[in-house]
Amino acid sequence: MISQRLRKILDITRLYKFIKLKLLRHSATPEELATSFAVGAFIGILPTFGLASILSILAAIFLKIPKIPCFLGTLIANPWTTPVFYTFSWKIGNYFFDVNPRDVFSGVGLRELMPVHIFVSNVIQIYKPLLTGGFIIALPGSIVIYYLILFFLIKFKKIRRKKLYRDL
What we know:
8 helices; single chain
């Protein structure tokens, strides 16, 4: 049987409430928060192979936007959504580059050593369609996320303001 403490830690609704409160209590404007979250989501959708959180913090520092919402935006990429993003990225990007992975790595057995420069060029050849498709998916996705977050934050601030005036 799962203990109460472990159940609290694993409860996804608590995580959602925590993220919501972090966004709503942040001192930045709704536009800044939505931009930051959208930049993080853009980076999260791109095929970064585990580097999205680091890249989002660096982007937040470089763009001078809030870091926490930018990091939280990368959580759009998780074990359930990443295979979907990567599959669509590959299919869309491969439309432009027409790369067949079997052709790229043909003739290379498991026991053979491939020179590093050939391996790197093969990986880049595979990564081009994946990154291109990722950009094509991430751009409209981040725009939609920007407007959803902005709408949510503005609506919440109005509700909060009404409660404050009603309580006075």
